[in-house]
Amino acid sequence: MAAVVHLEDIHKIYDSGEVQVHAVRGVSLEFSKGEFMAVMGASGSGKSTLMNTLGCLDRPTRGRYLLDGVDVGQLDRNQLADLRNEKLGFVFQGFNLLSRTTALENVELPMLYGPHRPSAREMQERALRCLDIVGLSDRADHFPSQLSGGQQQRVAIARALVNHPQVLLADEPTGNLDSKTAIDVMGVFQRLNDQGITIVMVTHELDIARFCKRNLIMRDGRVVSDIAVPDRLVAEVELRRLQDAETAAKLTA
Ligand SMILES: Nc1ncnc2c1ncn2[C@@H]1O[C@H](COP(=O)(O)OP(=O)(O)OP(=O)(O)O)[C@@H](O)[C@H]1O
Ligand SMILES: [Mg+2]
Fold it and tell me: What's the CATH code of the domain at 218?
C-alpha cells in the first residue's frame, strides 16, 4: 500500500541573518494509513519544525515530501493551501478556538475556506456529526468559555475532522490538560484511529505516548529512535481503572 506520508532526507535550516539553526537534519520517514505516532524528544529537538513540514505550513530547506502521493515541493502557495485543507486536520495545545463563536460555528470554520464551500445546511449537518463523534452534540451552542478544557479540545478535534482529513496532526494536544482529561482525549484519538484516521502527535509525556502505536524520538534534529509500542494502553480501559481505584479509595476511607 502506498504511504500516506513519505519524507526523504528532510532538512530545515532557519536563517535569520547572523545565526543559522539547523533544526531538522536529514529525516526520512514513511507511514501508511492507520498509523498512530507519538513524536517525542527534548525541547528544541525539532519536533514542531517537523510537524510544520508535515502540515505544509513551512517548506523544508532540502528534501522531498510526498503527501498521499503528491509531491508537496512542486506546489505553489494556493495549491498548498488547498492540499492542506483537503488532506490535513490540525489540533493545537491551546485549542485555538474562536472565543465569541459557538462550538458548532468553530467546527464549521474549515469548510468556509475550502475550494467547494458546502451549503449552510450541509455545513451545519457535517459540523454536528463531528461534534457527535467527539461526544459533544449537546454542547453545540456553547461558547468556549462555557466548556471545560477537555471539551474545548474535543471541539478542536471535531473542527480538525470536518473536512475528512487523511492525517490528523496534533502538537502537544494534551499539554494543557490534567492527566485524567488527557487520557479522555487520547480515547477520542484512539477511536478515530480505529476508524482509519492516521494521527501524528507531539507529546513530552511517556505516559501519553504509550496510548499510541508507534513512538518516534528526536534529538538535535534527527530521529534517534522509532519503535512500535509493545504494550499499548487503551484509554477507555485506563479511565475505568482510574475510576475504580477512586471508588475503592472512597469505600475504604
Ligand atoms: N522560526 C524560527 N526561526 C529560527 N529558529 C527557529 C525557528 N523555529 C524554531 N527554531 C529553532 O529550531 C530548533 C527546533 O525548534 P522546534 O520548535 O522544532 O523544537 P521542539 O522540539 O518543538 O521544542 P519544544 O519541545 O520546546 O516545543 C530550536 O533550536 C529553535 O530555537
Ligand atoms: Mg514544539
Answer: 3.40.50.300
Q: Find, among 55, 50, 51, the residue nearest to 10 by Cα.
A: 50
Strand order through the sheet with 5-15:
20-31, 5-15, 62-67, 70-71
Closest residue by Cα to residue 72 from 88, 85, 83:
83
**Best of 20, 45, 61 to mutate for ligand 1, by most ligand atoms within 8 A of CB?**
45
Q: From CA 155, how far away is CA 135, in angstroms rounded? A: 9
How many CA atoms within 13 Å lie on the side-chain side of 50?
Answer: 33
Tens of pLDDT along the chain (253 residues) come to 579 999 999 999 999 888 999 999 999 999 999 999 999 999 999 999 999 999 999 999 999 999 999 999 999 999 999 999 999 999 999 999 999 999 999 999 999 887 788 999 999 999 999 999 999 999 999 999 999 999 999 999 999 999 999 999 999 999 999 999 999 999 999 999 999 999 999 999 999 999 999 999 999 999 999 999 999 999 999 999 998 988 998 888 7
Closest ligand to Cα 49: 1
Number of domains in the chain: 1
β-strand 88-92 against 167-171: which pairing, if any?
parallel
For residue 163, give its domain range.
5-252
Spell out which residues line ligand 1, taking CB within 6 angstroms. Answer: 14, 16, 21, 23, 41, 43-49
